[in-house]
């Protein structure tokens, strides 16, 4: 009898809850995008509205000149409504007013249309990109290191796997450092909110300090300072002539992302009968003999078990992601766009997303992370000259091929295909790219072993490799700490190559931002970078010039030129263990009778340059006169 009464009570309680739910007026909890702009070239806007009881609402728009409510879309989840608008050229900035009504009442939603004010600057060969990880760079505001109402409540610099407290204010505090060094653009690893639990990776609980586990696309992580701090950073950076590159992630989100916890519909994720990880193989995507299954695994397999893989073939999700990209650029005034895990995305979606951005900002540099093994694969995932059915429209890519070639060239002895011939051969294949000058070469990043360690901590090789990086075609990218010889291998984890920037945190014994905080060799490295990068900023040949290389010869001599009608810069590399005297008679087509040259690193004037002496394991950078 008691069991029967308990059961009846439970039924009544449940009925009461249902009755209460259906008796409530719409409760709007989220609107994405949070605002929009008049004057966009694409007149279409889709607003995601989320909240309890919204799915059963009747939606109306108060008449507004130039704005037309085209349709309402519902999904299998009653907590979502998608509103499709058309915003014509006649629309002016102001507030739209929507009414959501059901049998229990109405809710008013105001939605702001703004005038466009963003003026992105073009990132090009004229720039040098500095990649940094905000959490590891500098802590400018210790009050935002951790929050009790976030899933990951830890911040501990003693642990390589937890957050360390670096933030956007810390970067602002050191903008003059970047000006001194000579870099002109900052690429920050993602700053979008990562409000997610620590994940078990290899038996160790780890924070998403790197930023690649998005949970709310429209919020900058509070531990970095939030939206206001990001806007402040960009404004202050622009005042000092420094551009900002956003790190975008389309392939996946964090497992605690708000819409993963309450999906609009199941098709927003790639769903498998059993968990399937991506193979991380790019070959199935370009292989004319490959299987559909292998391609599916690469594209739709999850990057990790705790990163839900997004299905960009779903039109609602595709629009959500594309609009977020456009919103971010407009809202924060972003200058360039780097795309994480590019090859794992749906390529039709990527073309649509790239086009949407370039339609609004035709000169914006978009470059993808395509960590592939061959020049052909890298070309496939950017604008190319290949005669293939699918054509990618991405303007640029992180140049993993040049990265591999430089590192290998410095580790191998010279041979037919070895040593500096690796770099020469890689660059000789530039014909496959439509715009090789837009590629972003590098020697190290946050996912690789540190360059100085890879080359055996050889300082001559260090200078040689960076000379190549800063003087070949493309938009060179350095990694924080490269300038003062940070080193390590990814053993046991990536955290080993993501150490804190010494001097960016209270209590640091050394301050690498200053001459006094660096040892003699570190200062020599810093001054080498500073000298070359600041010269580069003023060199028409290095920032705008064409690239011509000559076949390596004489056991390891490699010569190339950057040139315009007004300036020619010659780079002579001697990768041998002994000094070499290099005859210049074979370079007449580009030297055009030049009789003297200036060594831009020493200021020395070389008169009579029919033969030039080059020390062992050294590159000379000569401005021809």
Automatic annotation (TrEMBL):
<dbReference type="InterPro" id="IPR006047">
    <property type="entry name" value="GH13_cat_dom"/>
</dbReference>
<dbReference type="InterPro" id="IPR019492">
    <property type="entry name" value="Cyclo-malto-dextrinase_C"/>
</dbReference>
<dbReference type="Pfam" id="PF09087">
    <property type="entry name" value="Cyc-maltodext_N"/>
</dbReference>
<dbReference type="InterPro" id="IPR013780">
    <property type="entry name" value="Glyco_hydro_b"/>
</dbReference>
<dbReference type="InterPro" id="IPR015171">
    <property type="entry name" value="Cyc-maltodext_N"/>
</dbReference>
<keyword id="KW-0326">Glycosidase</keyword>
<dbReference type="Pfam" id="PF10438">
    <property type="entry name" value="Cyc-maltodext_C"/>
</dbReference>
<feature type="domain" description="Glycosyl hydrolase family 13 catalytic">
    <location>
        <begin position="131"/>
        <end position="536"/>
    </location>
</feature>
<protein>
    <submittedName>
        <fullName>Alpha amylase catalytic region</fullName>
    </submittedName>
</protein>
<dbReference type="InterPro" id="IPR017853">
    <property type="entry name" value="GH"/>
</dbReference>
<dbReference type="InterPro" id="IPR013783">
    <property type="entry name" value="Ig-like_fold"/>
</dbReference>
<dbReference type="InterPro" id="IPR014756">
    <property type="entry name" value="Ig_E-set"/>
</dbReference>
<keyword id="KW-0378">Hydrolase</keyword>
<dbReference type="Pfam" id="PF00128">
    <property type="entry name" value="Alpha-amylase"/>
</dbReference>
């Amino acid at each position: 009898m008691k069991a029967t009464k308990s059961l009846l009570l439970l039924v009544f309680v449940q009925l009461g809850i249902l009755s209460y739910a259906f008796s409530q007026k719409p409760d709007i909890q989220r609107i994405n995008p949070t605002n929009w702009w008049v004057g966009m070239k694409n007149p279409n806007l889709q607003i995601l509205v989320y909240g309890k009881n919204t799915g059963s609402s009747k939606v109306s728009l108060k008449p507004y000149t130039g704005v037309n409510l085209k349709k309402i879309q519902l999904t299998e989840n009653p907590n979502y409504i998608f509103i499709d608008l058309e915003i014509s050229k006649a629309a002016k900035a102001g507030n739209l007013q929507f009414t959501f009504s059901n049998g229990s009442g109405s809710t008013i939603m105001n939605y702001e249309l703004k005038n466009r004010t963003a003026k992105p600057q073009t990132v090009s060969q004229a720039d040098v990109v500095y990649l940094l990880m905000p959490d590891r760079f500098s802590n400018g505001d210790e009050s935002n290191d951790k929050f009790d109402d976030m899933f990951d409540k830890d911040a501990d610099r003693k642990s390589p796997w937890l957050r360390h407290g670096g933030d956007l204010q810390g970067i602002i505090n050191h903008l003059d450092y970047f000006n001194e060094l000579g870099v002109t653009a900052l690429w920050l690893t993602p700053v979008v909110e990562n409000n997610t639990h620590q994940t078990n990776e290899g038996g160790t609980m780890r924070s998403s300090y790197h930023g690649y586990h998005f949970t709310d696309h429209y919020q900058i992580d509070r531990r970095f300072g939030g939206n206001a701090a990001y806007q402040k950073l960009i404004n202050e950076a622009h005042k000092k002539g420094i551009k900002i590159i956003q790190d975008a992630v389309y392939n996946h989100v964090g497992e605690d992302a708000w819409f993963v916890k309450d999906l609009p519909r199941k098709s927003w994720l790639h769903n498998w009968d059993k968990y399937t990880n991506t193979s991380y193989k790019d070959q199935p995507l370009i292989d004319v003999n490959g299987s559909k299954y292998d391609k599916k695994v690469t594209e739709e397999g999850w990057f990790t078990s705790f990163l839900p893989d997004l299905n960009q073939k779903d039109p609602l999700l595709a629009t959500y992601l594309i609009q977020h990209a456009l919103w971010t650029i407009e809202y924060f005034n972003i200058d360039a766009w780097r795309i994480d895990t590019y090859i794992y995305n749906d390529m039709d979606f990527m073309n649509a997303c790239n086009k949407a951005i370039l339609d609004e900002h035709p000169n914006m540099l978009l470059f993808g992370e395509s960590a592939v093994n061959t020049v052909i694969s890298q070309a496939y995932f950017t604008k190319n000259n290949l005669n293939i059915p699918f054509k990618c429209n991405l303007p640029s890519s992180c140049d993993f091929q040049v990265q591999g070639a430089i590192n290998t060239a410095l580790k191998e002895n010279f041979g037919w295909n070895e040593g500096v011939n690796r770099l020469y051969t890689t660059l000789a294949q530039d014909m496959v790219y439509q715009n090789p000058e837009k590629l972003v070469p590098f020697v190290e990043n946050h996912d690789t072993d540190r360059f100085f360690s890879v080359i055996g901590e050889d300082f001559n090789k260090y200078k040689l490799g960076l000379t190549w990086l800063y003087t070949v075609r493309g938009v060179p990218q350095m990694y924080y700490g490269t300038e003062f010889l940070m080193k390590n291998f990814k053993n046991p984890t990536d955290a080993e190559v993501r150490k804190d920037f010494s001097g960016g945190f209270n209590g640091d014994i050394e301050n690498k931002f200053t001459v006094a905080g660096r040892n003699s060799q570190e200062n020599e490295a810093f001054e080498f970078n500073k000298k070359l990068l600041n010269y580069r900023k003023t060199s028409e040949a290095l920032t705008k010039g064409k690239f011509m290389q000559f076949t390596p010869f004489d056991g390891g001599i490699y010569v190339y030129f950057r040139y315009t009608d007004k300036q020619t810069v010659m780079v002579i590399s001697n990768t041998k263990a002994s000094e070499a005297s290099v005859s210049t008679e074979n370079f007449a087509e580009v030297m055009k009778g030049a009789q003297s040259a200036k060594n831009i690193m020493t200021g020395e004037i070389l008169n009579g340059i029919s033969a030039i002496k080059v020390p062992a394991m050294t590159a000379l950078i000569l401005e021809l006169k």
